[in-house]
TrEMBL record:
This is thermospermine synthase. The keyword Plastid does not apply. It comes from Lactuca virosa. One of its GO terms (molecular function) is thermospermine synthase activity. It catalyses: S-adenosyl 3-(methylsulfanyl)propylamine + spermidine = thermospermine + S-methyl-5'-thioadenosine + H(+). Pfam families: Spermine_synt_N (PF17284), Spermine_synth (PF01564).
Length: 417
């Protein structure tokens, strides 16, 4: 919101960006140049009403035209006017940045986790916002989680705890493999997955295939923590659809990693979670002893029925050995899940995992060790019990109409049942 100051003698009203505390006044809301508290409220109210009407018109227009980015002003802590985005899905905001408590000049990021449940946290500033051919992207400087990457209104990773996600995604499959040398990554444009892979001394080549070149270039520019990984000669960066790239390649890999967005309706990724894709594309491109791993979405007591259980059961129909595991990620406000799959046993003791970490990985993990993985792969009773076919048949019905994240077809669900 924008306040005003003016020179009444000539009838001029000059915009004053942000809210200014009067150094000589007890009331922090009184303007400089002798303006009264009433002046402030009159101008602020008019401006607020005008912005509400304009934003409503924008949302209506963008929703009807299929646009996914709604824009509006929000003052950061330096008092500058900055732009925020809210991603719309079916006319409903999924992620947005809002001004809360103007007297404190606070900006907040707010994300809809599910209906009637939202997750929000305070911002220091918005570092970047924009849109690519495929998705909307923002880089936020948050107070609780540091820099945070937001794509299509969903938090992808946060500076303070991204290591939990990426260590959990990368190290379990590579440590369970006897000698991983070649890796194929589907997605991973942020660069953090490649960073963790390249810490392994046995790895000779990492092929990272992401569909969105602009996101990759953005992350190269803004995420300095991964700059060394992007410059590593062992990394081969491919801009393409991961499914198309895998299908056209004759190469086989020791480990294939799915670092993709959740399988949502209309998104480019849901076809990369199907039984057909796993069976006809992924599995044939694994070398002997090869392991596949994928992120599998929320895995909490209530949220695991969204995609986690579905992905687990789909992989069980394709691979002989399947290991689901999960970890709490604070910035996600939930437990997150991953699933490993192979036709070869995936069994190592905590001591064996710790020994391989010491022998194979440069540097020390911040999160994962042998005992942590054993704990992570022990799912809660609620999640284990709801692995029954009834839940998954219900999940298919729900997501066929709302999110198209049905990893199996209806016939496959019924057959499993």
């Amino acid at each position: 919101m924008t306040g005003y100051q003016g020179r009444r003698d000539k009838g001029e009203v000059k915009p004053l960006v942000g809210f200014v505390r009067h150094k000589e006044s007890i009331d922090p809301m009184v303007f400089k140049l002798g303006h009264t508290k009433g002046d402030f409220y009159r101008y602020a109210y008019r401006k607020m009403m005008m912005m509400m009407v304009l934003n409503l018109i924008r949302i209506i227009i963008m929703s009807s035209s299929g646009s996914r980015l709604a824009l509006g002003p929000c003052p950061d802590l330096d008092g500058r006017n900055i732009v925020f985005g809210s991603v719309l899905e079916g006319g409903k905001a999924r992620g947005e940045i809002k001004l809360r408590n103007p007297s404190r000049k606070s900006c907040w990021y707010e994300e809809e986790i599910e209906e009637n449940l939202r997750w929000c946290f305070a911002l220091n500033s918005i570092l970047h916002t924009g849109a690519t051919q495929f998705q909307d992207i923002q880089l936020l400087d948050t107070k609780p989680f540091g820099k945070a990457l937001v794509i299509d209104g969903k938090l992808q990773s946060a500076e303070i705890d991204e290591f939990i996600y990426h260590e959990s995604l990368v190290h379990p499959p590579l440590l369970h493999h006897p000698n991983p040398k070649t890796i194929f990554v589907m997605g991973g444009g942020e660069g953090s997955t490649a960073r963790e892979l390249l810490r392994h001394k046995t790895v000779n080549k990492v092929v990272m295939c992401d569909i969105d070149e602009e996101v990759v270039e953005f992350c190269k520019s803004y995420l300095a923590v991964n700059s060394e990984a992007f410059g590593d000669p062992r990394l081969e960066l491919i801009i393409n659809d991961a499914r198309v790239e895998l299908e056209k390649r004759d190469d086989k890999y020791d480990v294939i990693i799915g670092d993709l967005a959740d399988p949502l309706e209309g998104g480019p990724c849901y076809q990369l979670y199907t039984k057909t894709f796993y069976e006809l594309t992924v599995k044939p491109r694994l070398m002997e002893g090869g392991i596949f791993v994928t992120q599998a979405g929320p895995a909490g007591v209530f949220s695991h029925t969204e995609v986690f259980s579905c992905i687990f059961n789909t992989l069980k129909q394709v691979f002989k050995y399947v290991v689901p595991y999960s970890a709490h990620i604070p910035s996600y406000a939930d437990i997150w899940g991953w699933v490993m799959a192979s036709d070869y046993p995936i069994t190592l003791s905590p001591d064996e995992l710790d020994l391989r970490m010491k022998q194979r990985i440069n540097g020390e993990n911040r999160y994962l060790d042998g005992k942590t993985f054993v704990s992570a792969s022990t799912l809660s009773k609620a999640v284990r019990k709801s692995g029954c076919s009834k839940i998954h048949l219900w999940a298919w019905t729900r997501f066929s109409s709302q999110a198209r994240s049905s990893c199996l077809t209806r016939d496959e669900f019924v057959h499993e049942r």
